[in-house]
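Morning run. Coffee first, then this:
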Amino acid sequence: MSWQSFIQNQIAQRKQASIWRQRQCIDSANGRSLFLAGKEFLNFSSNDYLGLAHHPQVVAAWQRGADEYGVGSGGSGHITGFTKAHDKLEQALADWLGYPKALLFISGFAANHAVITALMTANDRILADKLSHASIMEASIHSGAQLRRFQHNNPLSLNKLLQKPVVGKTLVITEGVFSMDGDSAPLQQLQEIARNQQAWLMVDDAHGVGVTGEQGRGSCFASGIKPEILVVTFGKAFGLSGAAVLCDEPTADFFVQSARHLIYSTSMPPAQAVALLAAVEQIKQADELRADLNQHIEYFRKNAEFSGMRLANSKTAIQPLIVGENQASQQLANFLRRKNIWVQAIRPPTVPPGSARLRITLSAAHQRQDIDQLLEALHDFIAQS
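And here it is:
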């Protein structure tokens, strides 16, 4: 088969299966609204859970950082890319989340990949929740370690796998809040089982930190646990981008020597680190925003009963509406688009076949009338179907 035939066949297969993805070039967006071609849409696809992406103090901090440091870091953190701004942010994150050390990464995908591939070898074993993020799965395969997946949020399934012998180390991996289902992991049970078998626990809390726990410290703090490795990302409640890995000092020293994404990637701009430090301070003080978000979640779930569709069992800002078939999910998303409501259809391979959905995300920036408008539009679609 020629290269041209291969590409054309792959494209045709995706279009035929209704899983063809397209990027949409928008004008701008925030936690509540999205603007495209002069039109305003209610935005229910953003991960900006607290509405901090446009917070004036966070924006002003980035501008101050750019004035002081410029707009780029100029290199890896091992060369010229580690500044006082990065150091202050790492210390603030470690203090806030209760760890000796924090290390900054350019993205959550990079952080997961760097940690897993640095820690694990061919003699080791990774036990990951079946619905773990693609970055975790890809890194686990790339590491060369034995990979086994335990049943989603099922401690008994994990315990059964842990009973099997292994030559090397075992790393248990889960998410705090799962990005496509919105449900939360039973972290206390998972940690207890892991420690009973001398395994380490790694938690990716991308969708939990900032919105759960005292001062928004996340799922692990709310569950009263402290995993050996905690990954937090800044593209959700922080309203920015990037990630950090929290751990003890010897492990951090090891990552500085061995984590390839840390060593070979250009570090985040110092101005971004200044903005993130401002975002941390806003998150600490955001009890009212978290209360607003929780009220929105409760209100939406109380009024979201739709014939032929199922709302996932989620108490978080992620409220998946399971439609089932790929084409039907896209039809619903297009219908909402005509109603000036922006919700993306999520289809395989991101989610399992037969579970295509609208991934509805709520933000503290939304107003009650916005949620009413969404609910009314969903009911209109069902009425006309």
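The chain has a mean pLDDT of 95. Good start to the day.
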